[in-house]
Amino acid sequence: MARREEGWHPLPDVTDHLKQVSLFDALSLRRSHRELSTRSYMSRERLAAIVWSAQGISDTSRFRKRTAPSAGALYPIKLYVVVSRVDGLPAGVYEYSCDRHALVSKEGVDNPREALPRVAAACRAEWVRDAEALLVVVGTPALRHKYHGRSVRYVWVEAGAATQNALLAAASLGTAATVVGAFDDEKVAQAVGDDLTTMRYEEEGPIVLIALGHPV
C-alpha cells in the first residue's frame, strides 16, 4: 500500500455505491432534514460517493469530464468538506481533489475542529452543528477571462448541478442532505480558510452549503 502523503486522505472507490438505486428512486427519496442524530458517524465510503457525485471525474480519458457540466470545461467550483464525525477522518476542513479522488487538509484554517460550529453560527442555524459533515460549494473566477459578465450565471448553474448530484447521491444512500442558502458569506469563508477580502467578482466565495447526517 502506498504511503499516505502528509495531509492527503485517499477516498474509497465509489463503483459499488453507484448501483444503489435508480435515479427516479433517488428523486422520490430526496427530502430535507433538520433533525439530525448527534451520535451517528458517516462512513468514508458514503462520504466518498457523495463528494464524487458532486465533482468527481466520470470519464478517465484525456478529457477527464466530471459529473457536473461546466461551461468550457473550466470547472470553476471548489468543494470543501467540513468533517465532524466521519470514520477515519479527523475533524477539520478538507478540499476535495477530483484528480486524485481524495481529501486534502485545508491550510490556513483557524482551529479546524471548531469549523462546523463556526459555520452553524454563520447560518444562525443550530441544527447544522449536528451534521456529520458539511459540504461548502465555493465559486471561483475561472470563467471570467472567457465569458466575462456572463460567467456568474455559468458558475451558479454548475454549483446547482453539483449540489443536486450530491443531494441525489445522499438520498440513494439513506443519508440526510439539506441545502443551506442563508449564511454570512464572510464568516463561512473564514471558517473554511478562504479570504473574501481578495475576491472581486460576484461569483467568488461560498455559494451553497449541504449539511449531511443521519435523520432522527
TrEMBL record:
The lineage of its organism: Eukaryota, Sar, Alveolata, Colpodellida, Vitrellaceae. This is Nitroreductase domain-containing protein. It comes from the Eukaryota. GO terms for molecular function: oxidoreductase activity. Residues 30-214 form the Nitroreductase domain. Transmembrane segments: none annotated. NCBIfam families: antibiot_sagB (TIGR03605). Gene3D superfamilies: NADH Oxidase (3.40.109.10).
